Amino acid sequence: MKLILPTLLIVLACATRAADAPATKLFAITITTGPAWDAAKPANEQKFFREHSANLARLRAENMSVLGGRFSDKGFLIVRAASEPAVRAEIAKDPSIAAGIFQASVDEYRAFQHGDTRPPLATPEVAVVRAALAAYNTRDAAAVAAHYADDIKWFGIAGEKTSIEGEGRAAVEKWLAGYFKSLPNVRAEISDVAQTGPHVSFRERVTWTANDGTRRAQSAIGIYEVRDGKIARAWYFPAAREAMPPTPAKK
Questions:
Q1: Which residues contact 95 (CB under 8 A, 6 or more apart)?
Q2: Do 139 and 226 share a domain, yes or no?
């Protein structure tokens, strides 16, 4: 019994891990009209259309649906699942598919370019952040500082500690001038931009060439507080260094 019990526990643990394994594969579902489609009726008057919509909503609520839309006369979904049979099992729960009103094809989807289909935020606050970023990429300290409030405070956040790393526009501009002088080809880009009130959050990726000629990159989460058209407060969490491909040797 002493040998059987540990073995049984290992088996149960492995089974639990398998059951809890994350669904990491993506699948494309293309939905077209089926043999039972009534050409005399619009889509919303087709039999089981309400149940069809409910099933799509369920996939979204259960975090399986990644993306959905229409093109031409077809519907298109990207879902996340463990396997193709798992996807087909979810489709089979749609009465409109079972009745032949719609029919669906399933293919594994391999993304080679990621993005966001939502329109980019175009609020006045985000415009200020993007203008400051554009100035940053010209390495002009005065142009960057022009987007800061006179009493700007720049905070660094590390664990439970918050420190002021820059205070006042003149002081931050002076620091930036030295920074750009030491990194003459530094460049930044932001992604995952979101806004709540005056606070704009983003992921910032910075790239530069080190003194030894190697390319470097790091990313950090930043938050800017924009008031009256100026960046009044800035918070940055610790940056994570990224691995870069080796610099090709000069011939």
A1: 48, 51, 52
A2: yes
